[in-house]
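Field log, afternoon session.

UNIT: design team B
ACTIVITY: writing a sequence onto a fixed backbone
BACKBONE:
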């Protein structure tokens, strides 16, 4: 696939580095099979256990999506899904079963995700340079669901990052996943009245900072193609022509690799930085177009090794924001394309 044709959704990395395969088989849940490694017929009864596993499997993608949007971490989201299964298996053993499996499973996942989010609060406070969510490759059809695509975009996840943990969970469960106040109350341990207040406060915060929606698909594709071509060839003027005058570039290195410690602003500075990154690369480098968090982006390989994951926001026919994730600890989510659901 050429750098000028952003079709997206395919992860890549050199075959000699199995942790980032060049052409993965695109498992829906890498390293975590759809049916967790728990026997379908444990000692407590085959048919009952099989039903519980089937119900869990039906909602697994939803659980991953909820956990990822709350934690902004692919690794944490996968761990939450596994923890949710263990608790679900125990609850499903009780007489009478669970009347509303979807809501019950999401309640468990939400609690586990909030626990992980709170436990990492200090790490976020001490983070070196701009913090960005762990990127993940998304299927092209995610863009067909405008609400879902916006909710997993880098831009929106950064807005939601400014909410408190409870506000974040309430906002996402209500506005993105459509749960009722009573169901959310059970998930976050609040009264329905308190949840309504939290939802109103969180909604007001998000609305005041909500990023603009991207332009039409055809126009966006053309802008991205021009951006990719100019970046690949080091065409400074070509980049300037597709960048908004007040474009912002955020680069997340986490203090582990070289990255801008502050946002880079204006078309001239961003264009020169992007061209400079290519010129300074040690060894050959290439861009592989991909759909990253519901937006057009690219995987950047240097000497055959995955180096950076980029995502673009395009508004009014120009690139308005460039997100570059370079922290190696955050690149595991691009080993495969992740299905999302709400």
């Amino acid at each position: 696939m050429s750098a000028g044709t952003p079709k997206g959704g395919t992860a890549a990395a050199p075959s000699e580095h199995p942790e980032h395969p060049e052409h993965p088989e695109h498992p829906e849940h890498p390293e975590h099979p759809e049916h967790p490694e728990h026997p379908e017929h444990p000692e407590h009864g085959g048919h009952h256990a099989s039903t519980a596993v089937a119900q869990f499997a039906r909602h697994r993608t939803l659980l991953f999506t909820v956990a990822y949007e709350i934690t902004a971490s692919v690794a944490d989201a996968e761990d939450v899904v596994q923890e949710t299964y263990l608790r679900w298996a125990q609850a499903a053993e009780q007489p009478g079963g669970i009347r509303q499996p979807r809501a019950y499973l999401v309640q468990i996942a939400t609690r586990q995700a909030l626990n992980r989010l709170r436990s990492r609060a200090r790490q976020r406070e001490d983070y070196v340079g701009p913090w960005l969510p762990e990127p993940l490759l998304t299927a092209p059809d995610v863009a067909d669901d405008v609400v879902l695509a916006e909710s997993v975009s880098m831009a929106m996840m950064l807005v939601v990052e400014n909410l408190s943990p409870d506000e974040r969970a309430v906002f996402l469960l209500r506005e993105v996943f459509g749960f009722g106040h009573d169901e959310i109350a059970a998930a976050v341990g609040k009264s329905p009245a308190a949840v309504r207040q939290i939802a109103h406060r969180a909604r007001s915060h998000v609305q005041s900072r909500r990023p603009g929606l991207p332009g039409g698909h055809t126009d966006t594709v053309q802008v991205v193609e021009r951006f990719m071509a100019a970046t690949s060839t080091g065409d400074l003027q070509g980049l300037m022509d597709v960048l908004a005058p007040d474009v912002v570039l955020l680069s997340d290195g986490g203090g582990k690799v070289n990255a801008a410690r502050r946002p880079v602003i204006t078309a001239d500075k961003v264009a020169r930085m992007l061209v400079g990154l290519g010129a300074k690369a040690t060894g050959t480098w290439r861009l592989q177009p991909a759909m990253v968090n519901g937006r057009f982006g690219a995987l950047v390989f240097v000497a055959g090794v995955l180096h950076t994951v980029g995502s673009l926001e395009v508004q009014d026919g120009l690139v308005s924001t460039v997100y570059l994730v370079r922290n190696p600890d955050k690149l595991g989510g691009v080993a495969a394309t992740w299905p999302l659901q709400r």
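LOG NOTE: The first strand starts at residue 137 and ends at 138.
NEXT ACTIVITY: expression trials, pending approval
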